[in-house]
Amino acid sequence: MGFSDRPGDTDGFNCALANHRSWRLGPEARTDSHCQFGEVMADCLECARAREECALAFAEYQGCKDELALTRKSDKEFTARRRALEQAQGKLRESRAREAHHREEFHAGNRLPCDEEVAPKIARLRENIELGDEDGVQQAVFDLGPVSNGWKRVPDEVVEQLLTILRDEKMSSSGLAAHVLNYFEFESHHLTSRQKSLCIGFLKAHGDQFTHFHSQQVVAELREGDYLK
Fold this sequence. Notes:
Order of helices and strands: HHHHHHHHHH
Oligomer: single chain
Structural class: mainly alpha
């Protein structure tokens, strides 16, 4: 599946969501076509387009991953589905690389958040987890991304708070944990070495405690993939 350069093109979006809900775009982007150095990234059209492309690629990757997980190696579809997953992984890497390049070129001077900015977002995530609102959890996790907030990088507080949430015993059997864990996949190229080390340590100590299928799947990907390297 290719991605259009036109901001309003949603054909690929509908296709990518056939098997998995994608991460939704954050604040609306402006209509002018230029990024100014140091401008808040949430107000940048190019950032919104790059973010949407990453969301579509991530949705396609998740859909292919889910299909392969439900396919036996002896099934005739296994080889084709594994190839589709590899292609989806390649598209996701390319999309993330384009987003990172744009970020470095136009937003190297972006700011770091204050505590008052992060706390309400974490509180919103906790509230949606308590309500069991899957869509709300997905959006709350997305809202913690550095690109949509115009942050220079992922704040330490975000990583620490997400790991604290995941340590809650109720998350061990909850499918909502997968959405929180997905943050470390989707934002892996924005994580610092220290933050990746914290995630690795968490997975070593607590990764085996997750019993929900999708959570186990994301734990395995974080352990075996390149996300935290």
